Amino acid sequence: GSNLPSCCAACVNTRLFEYHATLRLRRNLRDTLQSRIAARLEAKRKAEEQRMWKLSKAHDIKELRDRLSELKSRTALEKMKIKQASSDLKVKSGTLNVAFITLKTKQTDSSTMHTNAMKAAQMGLMATTSERLKRQSKAVKQLCRLFPMRRAIIDGEKKDGHSDPYDVICGVRLPRGLDPHSVPSEELSASLGYMLQVLSIAIHILSAPALHVAGFGGFLFTCMAAE
Hints:
GO terms for molecular function: SNARE binding. This protein is mostly helical.
């Protein structure tokens, strides 16, 4: 006989079929286990992501709460400051209103007093002026009685064609205008003496200037008009 092993095709096929069936079962088991592992890993990954998201949001919420608490404290402090400032402003406004009312009252009283004082001063001035004018008029009248003054036309000169009147004081003639030769020298000296005497008295009564440029008869005419 021969020492070579002998094989049966049917036996080989049977054994191959068994190996193939076992291999297919193990492959299915492997796929099943891989699917389970992948599902568990995916679930674990999602759970980890969710946990990290929760931690992040919790941290953000904590920061927001701290920020909110800080803002509340700051807002309360600002409200307190505003309330204090408003209270101070009300007090100052009240004081200012009282001062304004007092000032307005004093201004009205001052205006009234000023108006009354002006009216009183004007009335006093008018009364003083009236009294002064009365006294001046009385003094001038007395002066004119003491030194009679008038205007007259001399009969002889009227016949000669001179119709201009003379200013006469105490019965003697004053020169016409600035012409000292229009009257005799004796009348000129007498009339000018009277005139100087009247002038020296009248300037104190009328508070008038002592110098005149209206001629010899200008002041005499003024005194006659006042009389």
